[in-house]
Amino acid sequence: MSQLSDLLFESRIAAESVADFLAGGRLRLGVTGLSRSGKTVFITALVHHLTRALAAPGDKGVDGKGVDGKTQLPVFRPFAEGRIASAHLDPQPDYSVPRFAYEEHLAALTGVDRHWPQSTRRISELRVSLEYRSKGWSLRKGFTPGPARLDIDIVDYPGEWLLDLPLLGKSYAQWSHEALEAASVAARAQIASEWRGVTAQTDFKARYDEEIAQKLAQTFTQYLRLARSDRFALSSLPPGRFLMPGDLEGSPALTFAPLPVSESEELPYRSLGREMERRYEAYKSRVVRPFFRDHFARLDRQIVLVDALAALNSGPEAVRDLETALTGVLTAFRAGRANLFSTIFRPKIDRILFAATKADHLHHTSHDRLEAILRLLTARAIERAEGVGAKIDVIALAAVRATREAMVRHEGEKLSAIVGVPAAGEHIGDEAFDGVAEGAIFPGELPADPRDVFRGDALAVSDEEADFRFLKFRPPVATLGADQKPLPLPHIRLDRAMEFLFSDRLS
Question: What is the pTM of this model?
Answer without folding.
Answer: 0.87
